[in-house]
């Protein structure tokens, strides 16, 4: 926590602010911090007199970036799916895994059975890995309870993470994630009798910052998602959507019609959907961990997103089934290697654009007025963050105002 005003010097800063310089890079820079906020950033030779008297902290020529943001995680859950992973690799079909109790049903069962303190302890182990890689903000979804009590328990645990660790946590209600076994074949009844009441209860307890859903043939149809989004809109909550991961049902276009913060996965997104997102200011969140784990071949339409100036974010999608990926740095490398994102796009994807995907205007760049959430790296160039595999060059984090 940056309690005392200070002037950081002897550093190179990738501000990630828009401008002509790649990465918003300023060499031999200085950053002034007061009351947990950035008050000035620029060349060290140009430090204004009003900041020159602050306590100085030399960073040894290191590179400073905004604190990294993981804008799509399912980090609170019970159990794991390692046995299911092994079964698939030994040739078991999806149906065989399901009959053996695998799939999302197994995670729902484990999460429902877990005590709140156990869910928190397990989540903190995963959170600590992200913190060690420079993450200062995470999003945490519910969606493995699929009943009112467990959905609320997951969100309470997510809120507690911020009390236990120095990072900001954004909570997302994902009751429309799947239909639980007790509602098999009755998707509409589940939405009306469980999902929407749980959303209202979560909002009443101030446990939810945004609302998500899974719009897919194996999950919910657009009209069902729209009913959930109508309630979110009524409650004043922003929305986002798992969309176009396995097929194109028009989920991203639906989300954009509600002014969604983001549409996530989007492998099967078409140009109409991209244009709708561009018009709405909806961020495209790319999740290479799920693409890799599921051995998918349909890549998200990066060129269309670039063509229409849709911001592109990156996230781990950390979850026990389809993306057991607990590394934001590896996520950046995968975005570059699998999808040909540039290292600058990857870094913007976990800073500036990830902040936008969470509706956080005061994070993601290093500029006056922004929260002083910073990551300090033992690297010479920002591209190293995407280039190396299995190597963590973080020196330390600086965290400003934790909300």
Automatic annotation (TrEMBL):
Its EC number is 3.5.2.7. Keywords: Cytoplasm, Histidine metabolism, Hydrolase, Iron, Metal-binding, Zinc. Binds 1 zinc or iron ion per subunit. N-formimidoyl-L-glutamate binds at residues 144, 319, 321. Pathway: Amino-acid degradation; L-histidine degradation into L-glutamate; N-formimidoyl-L-glutamate from L-histidine: step 3/3. Residues 29-51 form the Aminodeoxyfutalosine deaminase/Imidazolonepropionase-like composite domain. Pfam families: Amidohydro_1, HUTI_composite_bact. This is Imidazolonepropionase. It comes from Aliiroseovarius zhejiangensis. The lineage of its organism: Bacteria, Pseudomonadati, Pseudomonadota, Alphaproteobacteria, Rhodobacterales. The gene is hutI.
